[in-house]
Sequence to fold (254 residues):
Amino acid sequence: MKIFDSHAHYNDDKFDDDRETLLLERLADYVIMNVGADIKSSMEGIELAHKYNHIYASVGVHPHYAEGVTDEDIELLKQLATKDKVMAIGEIGLDFYYDHSPRDVQRSCFKKQLAVAKELKMPVIIHSRDACQETFDILKEANVSDGVIHCFSGSKELALEYIKRGFHIGIGGALTFKNARKTVDVVREIPLDRILLETDAPYLAPVPYRGKRNDSSFLVHVIQKIAEIKGISSDIVATQTFSNARRLYRISNL
Ligand code: NI
Fold:
């Protein structure tokens, strides 16, 4: 069973002790998109992608780190985006739950990065928390519809609106949590060919590992849950989501 983890952070220091063994042994058969959250982690992701065959990278500034981002940083990001094996811009968006950066700064940083993605014709990886409608409106206004809404936590109606516009929906460990009724509804409603599997590793480990360090091998629990909700086999879930991620990230040689 070939599995594509469309969103992980293997540059995170929680992997410092065993990154190499983990990636080369337990995760050797997985294809992984390592997602950037600021300039530094974006550069680290590119290094990982250049070191390991089965890793690709995205570059972007997460809304948490939007404050202090200069136009030179955006220019640098644009250069990084053209490097080999960089396939997407992300994660970018709005986070009004933590509000680590002022909201107007988040909006402006988000819009500038959407412009980069459009210019380079690259898909986007969207982070949105407690900012459902505004994220949707900004994407609509920017006329961006090529991407994935990461760790989707909205309603099934919103999921269907995103899909209608061309987006994919990222589903991860949160689907297995006890309070996941809304996400279960989303998975039931949306077509399998728009679902991407994601870990957000090292965060959001699925049940029965909730609270522990997450890695791509735990995706089997998410796959099983999607299979159960949709009444299909785990094999079909893995195969279809693999091909969805490959299509969205334009990876031809897999
Ligand atoms: Ni993430």
Notes: The first helix runs from residue 19 to 26.
